[in-house]
Amino acid sequence: MTDHLPPAPPVVRLTEYTKTEQIEIIGDSDDPFGVADAGLTWLPKEDHFGIRQKGRLVAHAGLLRLPISIGEADTQVVGVGGVAVAPDLRGRGLARLVVSAAVDHARTMGPQHGLLFCRPPLVPLYQRLGWRMLEQDVHVEQPGGSVIMPLRTMWTPLRDGAKWPAGEVRLRSLPM
Ligand SMILES: CC(C)(COP(=O)(O)OP(=O)(O)OC[C@H]1O[C@@H](n2cnc3c(N)ncnc32)[C@H](O)[C@@H]1OP(=O)(O)O)[C@@H](O)C(=O)NCCC(=O)NCCS
């Protein structure tokens, strides 16, 4: 007998993602991503992917192309951020769906690597989605100058066989 699973909800490109849309997903908490302790200034994302259920936005992942230097090379990465799923719908694969759709799009943007920052407890989740830990310090810009990113840094190849190059890593912008 075949199992009839409900069809996966479609991921759509969002034309707008503001505080209003974020509140629609995760509510109006002071620190929905649990990163306020880090005291960082973040960049908004440019491309937005979402899942709607019965008209309500329930999941989001955002993308932004950013300049980075790795060793002597100045290059770009696609930053992934603002990953959020409605609290009542977690654990059902919605983050997998929306992050996968965002990464599929990131593959068309040019850079060889996707990059994200997350709290340590989320490392296993992103590893499950194919991301790898970057086991070195990553410098990022902040309004007061360059700092070492206190969160975990993870990357994913956007081209077949792309490896992370050796060398000091400096994101040449605020983090995403
Ligand atoms: C983090 C968050 C987006 C996860 O959303 P979610 O819809 O519950 O995640 P999914 O159900 O898609 O899980 C993704 C995968 O990780 C796996 N996973 C979840 N928790 C895990 C854990 N602790 N260890 C290992 N794998 C885990 C799931 O099994 C799933 O893998 P599978 O598809 O192979 O079964 C959600 O909890 C959230 O919105 N949190 C608040 C905002 C936040 O912290 N965002 C992250 C910013 S970096």
Automatic annotation (TrEMBL):
UniProt entry keywords in alphabetical sequence: Transferase
Domain named N-acetyltransferase: residues: 12-154
InterPro entries with a match to the protein in the record: Acetyltransferase_Eis, Acyl_CoA_acyltransferase, GNAT_dom
Record SUPFAM superfamilies: Acyl-CoA N-acyltransferases (Nat)
GO MF annotations, alphabetized: aminoglycoside N-acetyltransferase activity
Gene3D superfamilies (alphabetical): 3.40.630.30
Gene Ontology BP annotations: aminoglycoside antibiotic catabolic process
PROSITE patterns: GNAT
PANTHER family (alphabetical): N-ACETYLTRANSFERASE EIS
Name used for this protein in its record: Acetyltransferase
UniProt source species: Streptomyces olivochromogenes
